[in-house]
Amino acid sequence: MANVSSYTYAERLQTFEHWTDHQATAKQLAAIGHVHFVKRDLSTIALGDHAAASKSYESDFGNFNFHRPNCTRLQVRIPLEPQALLPGLHGYRLDSLRSRFERRAPVSNAASSTERLAQTSSLFSLPTELRLQIYAMVLPTFDPVTELLPLNRDSARVITRMGYEKTGPRDTSKPNLLRTCRTIGEEGLDMLYSNTTFQFQGTHATKVMYLFLRSIGKNGRRLIKSVDLQCGNREDAISFALLASCEKLQAITIRLPRPVILFPRAPIWCIDGMSCLLSLSGLKEVTFGRCESSFNYMDDSKPDSAIIRRELTRAKGTAGDIRSVNGYLDI
Q: Quick one: how many helices (H) and strands (E) in the chain?
């Protein structure tokens, strides 16, 4: 039997093929080095879609260990773990680290009754086009390219740059329209997300992307069509694995601060990050952008850019052309 530690991302993911109802969780687990014998129930609690809506991140991650001590895969960071949010801290409860701006409002007991009565509203007697016009008058709007940032340095929540730089009081009531019922939530999300390129910049860009994708849940991810991000970080693997669950993703702008896919003696987190990126498929447009953190970044003049574009634009469900040798990508 082959050594599990030498399995590539694709080989690890293949061992989860029976997790048909938990593909997003399976991809995240494979990205951080696991194979199928991890506990499914605990894994889906921590990494499943419902976790983003739980009362606190601490309840999901406080006592959950993804790796044994000294595991080499600890190099691949999980953005929601306390150690990833605040490097060097061990044993702190995440709830005690939340700022007063992140305290969640109590859930109303009337929420379930609102859901039951929503479909009787006269709003649903209107054509969908008219409802969308109403939503557009109420909901905040995104720019065609919207940059997302962490709410603060130690935060597990994200905010648009416009919201981050806004001075004075904020009106946080407008997005509550999306919470009135499932139908309005789905229709409103489609209007907000489908025509926007979400941009993630800086040295922790893929971490912010992961937090964003987790926060919008499965219904939000299925609407994302375009992203622009800087990669080359320890959170790349699990972030690209979750990005793969964005079924309608059509365009990506990659800002990679090096001119090659991999370099000699690349660390595990770098290999797994590129493996998860190259596992994406079915995209219509792959471009390379300027990377402010490096003067020698990936662009169309570099030979490896053609490999990345070829892999990401191949038809969905088809195997890639890159093979592995002893756990390393053969490029």
A: 13, 8
